[in-house]
Design goal:
With about 290 residues, the protein is mainly beta. It folds into 3 domains: about 160 residues, no CATH class; about 60 residues, no CATH class; about 35 residues, no CATH class. Helices cover about 10% and strands about 35% of the residues. It holds the Pfam family CPL1-like.
């Protein structure tokens, strides 16, 4: 139910950010040097960045945030819910901190131009480090083997669900800018720095989350995503702030769940809890299924 992508401090030539690297079972998250309960993935990333660790894991199950010095064995990574890297409500999302690379999505194949390089790193961090002088990077957990592609220009072809470590193919695509910014770009960067600073000071009270309203990147509302029926667990139109360029829905509209009786669902601790179904349906594992 959570994920999306890119947040944090800004540098002169690129955006030093947290970038998504996959979904894991919370039980398989590596042991961390620091842990906390976070309201959302952005809060977790900020916490781990402050803790000076290299990786962060945010559990959609209970909000547990684990800061680590490793992304763990690549064999622990599971299939995501879509090509944007959305992790399910029973998974944890994994992030590399302080990297200029941003996650672009998952694809069945890549198309490269210019210089290229292929390596077999031991970790996603190693892949991005190997591609430091290239604008494009692609990571494939193919048949339990990490394969890293670097290229001056690297595009994805054929969007597909982000694959698990046991898959026979599929690429996680990343990009960075190595171009010296123009005067306009520097002004835009200063504005993003200003917004990032505002984000660190929070737009809303500590118990609420700033969520975008519709497609307007300049408008937001403060929502209690732990209890709001129509934005349960996250923002329906994406988080407001420095992450808007990659903003996607991270919540669930509990009122739109199929076959649920009127007033038969609540949002508790960021999870939809169904208590009653429409006539002819039975409540099974928090879902309303048709009675035989």
């Amino acid at each position: 139910m959570i994920v999306p992508i890119i947040i944090a401090a800004l540098a002169i030539r690129s955006v030093e950010a947290a970038t998504y690297i996959g979904c894991v079972d919370p039980a398989n998250v590596p042991a961390g040097s620091s842990t906390t309960i976070s309201t959302d993935v952005n809060a977790c990333i900020n916490f781990c960045t402050t803790a000076s660790t290299t990786d962060a894991f945010y559990s959609n199950v209970d909000g547990m945030c684990t800061c680590t010095s490793s992304s763990g064995s690549f064999t622990i990574y599971e299939q995501a819910q879509d090509s944007g890297g959305t992790c399910s409500s029973d998974q944890a999302s994994a992030w590399i901190l302080n990297t200029p690379f941003g996650f672009s999505g998952c694809y069945s194949q890549t198309v490269s131009q210019g210089r290229t390089r292929t390596t077999f790193p031991s970790s996603p961090e190693g892949c991005l480090a190997n591609c430091a002088t290239y604008e494009g990077a692609a990571l494939s957990r193919s048949n339990n083997l990490l394969v890293c592609q670097c290229a001056d220009t690297l595009d994805g072809d054929g969007a597909e669900v982000c694959q698990p470590a046991s898959a026979s193919g599929g690429f996680y695509l990343y990009g960075q800018s190595l171009t010296e910014p123009t005067a306009l770009a520097r002004r835009q960067l200063r504005e993003r720095l200003r917004r990032a600073q505002i984000a660190r000071n929070q737009y809303c009270p500590s118990s609420l989350t700033a969520c975008m309203i519709g497609c307007d990147h300049e408008a937001f509302e403060c929502i209690d995503t732990q209890a709001d029926l129509e934005a349960c667990g996250g923002c329906m139109n994406g988080l407001y702030g420095p992450t808007v360029r990659n903003a996607i829905a991270t919540g669930v509209d509990c009122s739109a769940l199929p076959n649920v009786a009127l007033g038969g669902v609540t949002c508790t601790r960021g999870q939809c809890e169904v208590s009653a179904c429409k006539y002819g349906y039975a409540l099974v594992d928090n879902q309303c299924v048709r009675m035989l």
